[in-house]
């Protein structure tokens, strides 16, 4: 058993060059949530996760704390951690807040965006397209969120940027948990058109495109349930396969 754990630890350490064990465990769990492999309210048992990844419970706790700060995991005193499960009402509040925030950001971005920032956002859209083309939904969703954070950077307003980081993280969780369909991605065209309007300085068009984009995201949500597994060993079967090899 010890040698098996060592082989997994080695795999975790070297999965991505330069990442620590904390980083890789965090990414595995976050990906599982974003890719809908971990449903809402799933208990994240520290002992089971430590055994699966071949790391200490201290590392698992640090990863779970990091996820809790991003509001995708809830840590309950004396009861452990679970995947966050926002209610329908909470989801509506999150998206209403996001609508107000994104429109304010878009209006400011039309005035403040630089050519370099727009070029950087266009590169993000290309990376997002490539992720979805490879059926890498988790990466695609993260890149989409990063695109919206970059828009907030264009607005050149520090409080709005801080709020955007939090709201995008929460929105990504809701999308990952409740989006219906086959995860077909239409947002890359919407992102490109939005960038075009910002680059052209057309505020009215940019605001209308942002409203349509947010409505498109909201229209794909189904908060009635989720068929993913809540068995940690099923969710992380790929890690266990690496461990056995």
UniProtKB/TrEMBL annotation:
One annotated GO molecular function: DNA binding
UniProt cross-references to SUPFAM superfamilies, sorted A to Z: GntR ligand-binding domain-like, Winged helix' DNA-binding domain
Record Pfam families: FCD, GntR
HTH gntR-type domain ranges (all copies): 19-86
Cited SMART domains: FCD, HTH_GNTR
Domain of life: Bacteria
Keywords: DNA-binding, Transcription, Transcription regulation
Matching CDD domains: WHTH_GntR
Name listed for the protein in its UniProt record: Putative HTH-type transcriptional regulator YdfH
Organism: Vibrio thalassae
């Amino acid at each position: 058993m010890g040698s098996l754990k060592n082989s997994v630890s080695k795999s975790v350490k070297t999965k991505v060059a330069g990442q620590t064990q904390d980083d890789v465990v965090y990414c595995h769990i976050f990906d599982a949530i974003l890719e809908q492999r971990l449903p809402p309210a799933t208990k994240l048992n520290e002992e089971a996760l430590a055994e699966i990844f071949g790391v200490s419970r201290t590392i698992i706790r640090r990863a779970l704390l990091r996820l809790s700060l991003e509001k995708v995991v809830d840590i309950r005193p004396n009861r452990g951690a679970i995947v966050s499960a926002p209610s329908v009402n909470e989801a509506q509040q999150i998206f209403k807040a996001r609508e107000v925030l994104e429109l304010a950001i878009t209006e400011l971005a039309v005035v403040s965006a630089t050519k370099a920032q727009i070029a950087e956002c266009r590169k993000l859209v290309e990376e997002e397209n490539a992720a979805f083309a490879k059926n890498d939904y988790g990466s695609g969703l993260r890149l989409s969120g990063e695109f919206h954070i970059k828009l907030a950077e264009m607005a050149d307003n520090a409080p709005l940027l801080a709020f955007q980081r939090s709201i995008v993280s929460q929105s990504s969780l809701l999308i990952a948990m409740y989006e219906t369909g086959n995860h077909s991605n239409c947002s890359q065209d919407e992102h490109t058109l939005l960038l075009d309007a910002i680059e052209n300085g057309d505020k009215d068009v940019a605001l209308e495109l942002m409203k349509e984009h947010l409505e498109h995201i909201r229209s794909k949500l189904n908060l009635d349930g989720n068929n993913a597994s809540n068995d940690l060993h099923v969710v992380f079967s790929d890690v266990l396969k690496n461990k056995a090899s």
